[in-house]
Amino acid sequence: MNYRIADAGPTETKEEKLDKLTILAVDDDPLTLLYLKKMLAGDSRQILTASNGKKALELAFDHRPHLLITDWRMPKLNGIDLCRILRKTRKTQHVYIIMLTGCEADDELVEAFNAGADDYIVKPFTPKVLQARISSGERLIRYQQTIRRDRDIIEQYATELAAANRKLQNMAMTDFLTGLPNRRNALIRLKNLIAEMDRYEESLSCIMADIDHFKKINDTYGHDCGDMVLKKVASILEEKARSYDMVSRWGGEEFLIVCARSNRLESFQLAHRLRLAVEKHEFKFTEGHRGHVTISIGIATWSPDFVNEDELIKEADNCLYLAKKHGRNRVIAIPPPATDFLRPRP
């Protein structure tokens, strides 16, 4: 009965082809070296030769061979010392080393293995034995190449996956239209600042800004124009805010600015700068239609009476409602930091 062995997996593609095996042969006997070179030659191998240990060391550092076949006793640098040096050097420590020796006494074999040899062959050797030992070492080298290649692929995938995760996380925390941090991002920032504020006894304020008559802009000029206004207002707020302020899109035409280390007066002054910057900018709504946009702002500063960030935001939102109610294009904080005015002029 004939049995058919199932295919173990896909055949190796061109991209998966393993590296050509580089073999370094070292012997001070020219005839032995020539014999080794001819016997080792093959399409999948690159053969290097050296007549002494010192030259072999230079070639090993330059070419980083996969396999080294070295005689034990050589001038300038013997095989044992060559083996020790290669094992202690980072870029050559993984070379597979076969030691050629004219003696198979136990003490010498133990010395060779202690120096870092992986295998040994007693001289004079037969081609069949040498080829068998080389084939055994080559299988191990090929396995190591495969493992390194698989590790590199896994590391590449892991890097790409981490980059994709960072991109997704950034998308989840960023407003698509304006590029500002979104509501979720702002809440996380606010919670962290409240924790730091309690620890270091610092001030904390937030500014809630809303574009005045935004629905009218959409109805008159279209939603594309409305998106343009949202993006430009976002850009102005981000440009005029301080480096440690976080400008975020709260939703719709509302923006929340989280002001770290800021008391009521400091955030009030910032809010007026933001309001004036938006008011002064000329918007191009459509071809031939230009005009100005204003924002109303409410301010809240953290109070020991607040339980959490929701109450701080609610206070800012209430002040924003009053700014809208009293005519828009103004800043409201309760109580105001200085004199009680609704719309100070520059």
UniProtKB/TrEMBL annotation:
Any GO molecular function: diguanylate cyclase activity
Coiled coil: 154-210
Keyword Flavoprotein: no
Domain Response regulatory: 21-134
GO CC annotation terms, alphabetical: plasma membrane
Cited CDD domains: GGDEF, REC_OmpR
EC number(s) per entry: 2.7.7.65
GO BP terms in the entry: cell adhesion involved in single-species biofilm formation; negative regulation of bacterial-type flagellum-dependent cell motility; phosphorelay signal transduction system
Superkingdom field: Bacteria
Domain GGDEF positions: 161-334
Record keywords, A-Z: Coiled coil
NCBIfam families tied to this protein: GGDEF
PANTHER family, alphabetized: DIGUANYLATE CYCLASE DGCM-RELATED, REGULATORY COMPONENTS OF SENSORY TRANSDUCTION SYSTEM
Protein name: diguanylate cyclase
Organismal lineage: Bacteria, Pseudomonadati, Thermodesulfobacteriota, Desulfobulbia, Desulfobulbales
